[in-house]
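Q&A log
Question type: sequence-to-structure
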Amino acid sequence: MSLLSKRLRGLSSVAGHRLKSSLVSASIQNDADYAKDYEDMPGPSPLPLLGNNWRFLPYIGDYNITEIDKLSLRLWKEYGDVVKIGKLLGRPDMVFLYDADEIEKVFRNEELMPHRPSMPSLNYYKHVLRKDFFGELAGVIAVHGEKWYQFRSKVQQPMLQPRTAKHYIGTIEETAISFVNRIKKIKNHNQEVPHDFLNEIHKWSLESIARVALDQKLGCLDDDYAMNSDTQNLINAINTFFENVPVLELKIPFWKLFSTPTWKKYIKALDTITKITSKHIDKSLNKLLSEKSFCTDHQSSLLKRVLSLDPSNPKLAQILSLDMFIVGIDTTSAALASVLYQLTQHPDKQKKVREEIKKVLPYADTKLTSAKLEQLQYLKACIKETLRMYPVVLGNGRCMTKDTVVGGYKIPKGVQIVFQHYAISNSSKYFSQPDQFLPERWLKGTHHRHHSFASLPFGYGKRMCLGRRFADLELQTVLAKILQNFQVQYEYGSLDYTVHPMYMPHGPLKFKMIED
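Response status: OK
Response body:
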């Protein structure tokens, strides 16, 4: 290409970018000119003094925090695509958004340091109550602005690069095989796993994170595992943490005035999480620091990879590892439980995915590789379809850092917009046959079409889930190994989905694991 051609191409690109920017600015200005006032937005009416918090109270309220899925659909039906829940004592207004085009617009126009809806309780814990531990590096959860941006910028390369995650396939497969062997030992003469199988899934998830993040074997799946061990206490504390978040965030925040019983349980749980994870993180960190070599290879833990980026600041790697333990165990566990349950409810789909797995992994000792995982397209489609219909987290959002027009209304700075992904991804407006479990809709070459912002189980944009690559890899690997070994059945009718504390089937997961 000649120098003149390159210059003309460059000028054309700049002109195109300027034209696009002008069109976006004009569109936004046009929206602002015709937007309705915020006060006119429909939504439930607050009461004097109690605002709208009373709706989440037991007995007198009509909003059940364990049934946010049903509440979301109800509000959409009653008020439309944009719903205001205002006058929430101790926290900003919330706007529920049910329009995929508007969600896309918010994401596409977000700034360099977007704010997620704050978690005041965790924010207080990190920045006030335990500031001596976290200091200026409080991680990415409940952190915003410059501190969040600096932390995220340093750690996102090893966390989000697909090639980095692929280095851990062997390690994650080892843990998945240990989980399969554990299943074989704990199932009874009827081939059923115990009623507390969800806790076994938690143990698998914790063991997987420890292997990837710290290169440590915690022994969660060993025969001599003790129910009063540190790791079990950690699992229990994480469950307690998530169970109490909606109570503290949606009900009247008395915890800001005095230490309520819920607040005390919440703080005790967070202290337990911090104490136990720090013990294991420090063990790995001290070993790496004593070696005084920060060169990484394919087998290096994430702790070492992040430490190698800034050896003078080990706190960075320490806090990232802590955040992974806090949010990575329950979410991945809930997703695995949900996919397994859906495959029991759709045996034809399970048969198809098992045939795919047996073709790619014909022998028990056939090792998983990146190339083999790439061939498991129907397995990946089953995961995507489960998370479409039953996303582990029902929605995410953004806190407006400036006055913005969304959904035809002027949204003031400080309002929290909550994207209602569960409602949208189960709507016929965005998916054909939305109430049908159709993994085929995610396969290439099919006639199915959907809005790219109608199902976002891991979020999107600058604040997309940092652990997405590893969660995907863990789920694909463990499902491949389970379905390679077992036909999975559930003989106790249908289970309701509730926020417990993630959105997942509610009830004993007494799966029947039938070996071929």
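Response note: Strands lie at 82-85, 94-97, 396-399, 404-406, 409-411, 416-419, 486-489, 497-499, 503-505, 512-515.
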